[in-house]
Design brief:
Number of strands: 0
Structural class: mainly alpha
Radius of gyration: 21 Å
Strand content: under 5%
Distance between the termini: 28 Å
Oligomer: single chain
Shape: globular
Low-confidence stretches: none
Helix content: over 70%
């Protein structure tokens, strides 16, 4: 594959992958879990710090190992089977579920905006997947440039809401201090549940490591894209949620999925609702494209190591565009099936558990490699070692343990789906002997 992705395009992929629908919809869930404005903002900040710590930690590996993506990082550190299982989970659950769920949200918002019958929302979602598949098949350079444009466009409505909200003269008090929880909420419960919800909105940044072999200067640009992207996202999330809480009283925010629409109506008047809907469409469109751009490379990476049936075909990229065509078709076909099945909440909750299990392993890998290979050239070193990796590991363990305690069945399903890859792995290993 050609090295044709610039720092700006890699940064746009990080921001585009993370900022989707969550920035508009999570405020209702988190205020219900915390019961206060101060704790709501605190868990957003804490989620951002944990994500940045994880990004800083994984960036050391990304800059040090001249190999492509998190799959290879796990291969290198723990052994081939762990990299395969991570790639397998990404291929059959993570990327298809993200693409499918976000496309479905796009379909629902699209029919609502244009007054189309609701029964056509799935058709719109499937057409979006097919359309973006076509765009990505044109070539990596074209689709990544488009991602940069979409990322700028999706920030515009978010920026308008934040700026109008900050300068709004009719603010509702939204105290940041002291740090309290609402009546009927426990302090530990508010932090654990709120943090888990907020961390879901940061999901997606790890996928940019799949582009390591196509970034022009991966030693510097990949780590910079992850760190600056996550820092910007944290700031955006904190500011827009603070804006919502200064426009609507907290009792109107709790469990309110239309909070962004209602807040914008108050800020901008009658056209505010349509503005937010267009903003959501642009935001979700960019997120789907970012997951598609990176997701199609997971089957390709696995096939390059002859770890999938028909690897000789899946592991090929188009000679003219550099696009792994069959990899794209596999991921998008599963996404379309998920759209038709229509149940995405279970899948998205489960994939967070699975992905953070591997993310935690990646953070621990930095410590392992520091001890195992002290002479390894590290163009980027995680600052304040080992404090930053420790924050990342503790955050990851918290997510995994909380999910097992609070959603045991989902955790079990995630583990089973991941382990289903083992028979294929050992079959291909024996076949290669």
């Amino acid at each position: 594959m050609k090295r044709q992705i610039s720092f700006g395009q890699a940064l746009a992929t990080v921001v585009g992958s993370v900022i989707g629908a969550g920035v508009f919809f999570k405020i209702g869930t988190i205020t219900a879990q915390t019961g206060s404005t101060s704790m709501t903002l605190f868990v957003w900040i804490l989620a951002g710090l944990i994500s940045i710590a994880s990004g800083l930690t994984v960036s050391e590996i990304a800059a040090s190992l001249k190999i492509n993506g998190a799959i290879k990082y796990l291969d290198y550190t723990y052994g081939r089977v762990w990299g395969f299982l991570f790639g397998w989970a990404q291929m059959i659950v993570y990327f298809p579920a993200q693409i499918g769920a976000l496309s479905s949200i796009f379909g629902v918002q699209f029919v609502s905006l244009f007054g189309i019958e609701a029964k056509y929302s799935n058709l719109i979602a499937i057409l979006l997947v097919i359309f973006l598949l076509g765009i990505n098949l044109i070539g990596t350079k074209f689709s990544s440039k488009m991602q940069s444009v979409i990322t700028v466009l999706k920030i515009i409505p978010i920026a308008l809401i934040i700026i109008w909200g900050l300068f709004n003269s009719d603010k509702i008090p939204a105290p940041i201090l002291p740090l309290t929880v609402g009546a009927g909420h426990s302090f530990p419960g508010a932090i654990s549940q709120g943090l888990l919800s907020a961390l879901f909105a940061f999901e997606g940044w790890i996928v940019v490591t799949n582009l390591a072999n196509e970034v022009k200067n991966p030693e510097k640009d990949l780590s910079r894209a992850i760190i600056l992207g996550l820092s910007a996202i944290t700031l955006i999330y904190v500011l827009i949620n603070y804006t919502f809480m200064t426009v609507l009283p907290i009792d109107q925010l709790v469990n309110n999925n239309n909070a962004a629409f209602q807040a914008s109506m108050k800020l901008f008047g009658q056209f505010g609702g349509k503005l937010v809907t267009i903003g959501i469409l642009i935001s979700v469109y960019g997120a789907v494209n970012a997951f598609m751009l990176t997701g199609m490379r997971t089957p390709y990476i696995l096939a390059q190591d002859n770890l999938l049936p028909f690897s000789n075909k899946i592991g090929k990229a188009n000679i003219h565009t550099g696009v792994p065509v069959i990899g794209a078709l596999i991921v998008d076909a599963i996404a379309i099936i998920m759209i038709l099945l229509g149940n995405f909440n279970v899948l998205t909750d489960m994939l967070v558990f699975v992905m953070w299990t591997f993310n935690t392993m990646l953070s621990i890998a930095v410590v392992i490699l520091r001890k195992r290979e002290p002479e390894l050239k590290r163009p980027f070193k995680v600052p304040w070692y080992p404090i930053i990796p420790l924050i990342s590991v503790i955050g990851g363990v918290f997510i995994v343990v909380s999910t097992i305690i609070n959603q045991f069945v989902l955790s079990l399903i995630g583990i089973v789906l991941t382990l289903l890859g083992l028979p294929i792995y050992y079959y291909m290993q024996n076949k290669g002997e």
